[in-house]
Fold this sequence. Notes:
The chain is of the alpha/beta class. It has helices at 10-30, 47-73, 89-96, 116-136, 157-176, 179-182, 228-242, 258-270, 284-292, 309-323, 338-353, 369-380, 397-400, 418-422, 433-447, 453-469, and strands spanning 145-149, 153-156, 200-202, 213-218, 250-254, 274-279, 296-300, 328-330, 360-364, 386-392, 427-431, 474-479.
Amino acid sequence: xxxxxxxxxxxxxxxxxxxxxxxxxxxxxxxxxxxxxxxxxxxxxxxxxxxxxxxxxxxxxxxxxxxxxxxxxxxxxxxxxxxxxxxxxxxxxxxxxxxxxxxxxxxxxxxxxxxxxxxxxxxxxxxxxxxxxxxxxxxxxxxxxxxxxxxxxxxxxxxxxxxxxxxxxxxxxxxxxxxxxxxxxxxxxxxxxxxxxxxxxxxxxxxxxxxxxxxxxxxxxxxxxxxxxxxxxxxxxxxxxxxxxxxxxxxxxxxxxxxxxxxxxxxxxxxxxxxxxxxxxxxxxxxxxxxxxxxxxxxxxxxxxxxxxxxxxxxxxxxxxxxxxxxxxxxxxxxxxxxxxxxxxxxxxxxxxxxxxxxxxxxxxxxxxxxxxxxxxxxxxxxxxxxxxxxxxxxxxxxxxxxxxxxxxxxxxxxxxxxxxxxxxxxxxxxxxxxxxxxxxxxxxxxxxxxxxxxxxxxxxxxxxxxxxxxxxxxxxxxxxxxxxxxxxxxxxx
Length: 494
């Protein structure tokens, strides 16, 4: 606690230190041990870093206290030393107002690398030194200021001790504020409630020095391992609200596999039969997943296993026949405005998770719904964000107006999708597929991220943009799905 009487005897000072130490320990114990080295958000310290900071600051305080005692033992004749005005109690009251936030000096910034346990042990060692010095102080008056605080002016020995305890109390509050970020979610009523609220990670190893920060939203944490769960749920819910989809009807769509898996999962929960058109151009794992969820899967042959504009034309022809049959609802993912409602959550979550610090968002375009929806979510949240659309260089419909064959599943259909026409990006870029494939292997080995080619293409572009922007900026993108869907192919064997 803080008092205006700064000449408290050592026992009161020791009690003050112990009370605040206990409060700090309780705050640390409130955070699960598995999360104490994790930052709760960008530009926020982890528990370990807070404790390291406290140890750095209190080590400096211990040095000042030791110097004061040494000087007191060697003091000249009483009264010879000049007097300095003691700090106004109002200044200490201001410090005790924990709603205030003060900028930490560079010298007291944590260096990182310590576990929370190691940082606590270091802090305890410093505290023992402070307690010893406090006990020794009873032999001396120590009423004169001994050293200035950079913000509050000169302080006496005992004022510095009160500051040390108060510093613990302030950071105990900071640690307790971390808890919501680490709290486990409540049980969900169904798998549908597990869609969204995916984590964001900052890349460390594959981003070059001197580049902007790159953050990736891990959409493979959705139930089917893809961000398409967001879109599929929004399309089905929207159709139900409008009365376009009713019990007893079936759902149809053509798909590269991820949308189909998401639709099949949601229709299984809601009780709708689902017929999906896909192709041998897409990963066998995706085809098996759709069947596992109970979908009636019909295969449209490809040209040599490649994704081509002609394949999508055949899809459109065959889906038109299915959609015309009675009792059928076609989700029409390339034109369905409900899809944007589902994807807008990515933008809102990113803005919240990064504290509004988003300068660029980039993403590959298939239906265009993810990029348009995320952009809308970011801007509705208040962000002024540059939006960059991506495609493989071998199918540059956005950048050159022509399609072409490629091997990146889920994107680049050979034409500019309707969602992009209604919500044009600020820029479009073409990324070489071979660069994305090479980066996918690096991401697994250097960042521990197992992602597919489209996600690696997203990240390759994010790194390219980060290099152009330089330090102090934030580039974001998504890992669309998990690399587990591509293990049967050659992505991770090349």
